[in-house]
Design a protein that fits this description.
Oligomer: single chain
CATH topology of the largest domain: Rossmann fold
CATH superfamily of the largest domain: Nitrogenase molybdenum iron protein domain
Strand content: 15-25%
Shape: globular
Length: 215
Amino acid sequence: MESKLVGVSRHSKTTSKTKDIGDLTHWNYEEIIKLKPSITILLKEQKEEINRLKKLNIQTYQFDSDSIYSIEFEIKKIAKTIFNLEYPYKFTPAVITGFSLLNPNPKKTLVIVDRVPNSLKEIYVAGSDTFFNDFLPIWGGFNCYQKKGYKKISLEHIIKLNPDIIIDLTFNGDLSVWSRFSWKIINFNDISPLLQLSQATVQFILDNINIFYEK
C-alpha cells in the first residue's frame, strides 16, 4: 500500500518518497493540489478539511477512529476497497482490556494531539469518544476532557481541568513551555511502542497496527 502513497502527514513513518502535506490542523493545500491524489484519507472529525477538499473536487475517505475496533474495521475496508488487498490481522482485545481493573485510582489524563510547537496556543485535545480512551487505562489513567471529538481549548480551560498527566503528542513540540506547571508531561517520544498508535494519522496506524494484532 505504501508504494501508492503520494503525500502523508508529517508525523507518518514511511520509507517511500512522499510529500509532507501538513498535520491534523494545518494542511498544505497547494501541495495536495499539485499531487493530484485519487483519494485522500482523513479523520471524519476534520469537517473543515473535508469540505475544502470537496470544493477542490478531491475525493475523500473519512476514517472513523472512535475506537480500536472501528480502526480495525476501517483499515480492512481501506485495504479492500482502495488497494484491493486483504488485511491479514485480527485484533487481540486482551492487549487493552483488563487494565482499568488493575488500577483502582486512575490518574486524570489529558491528551493533546496538536498545538503550536513552541507555545501553548492552538491547543487541540482528544475527547471522550476518541480511540485514545481505549489506551489510557494502560497508563492507569482516564480522560478528564469529557466532550466529544477533537476540540480546540484554551490554557485556562486546561488549568480548570487540572489533569495529573498531560500526554502531549505535538510533533517537535517544545516541552519547556509546560515548565511553570506542576503537571506530569509525557511527550510522544516517551510513549511506549504499544501506545504509538495514538498518533492520529492513518499511515502511522497502518505502520504500527501489528503491535495490536496477531496473524
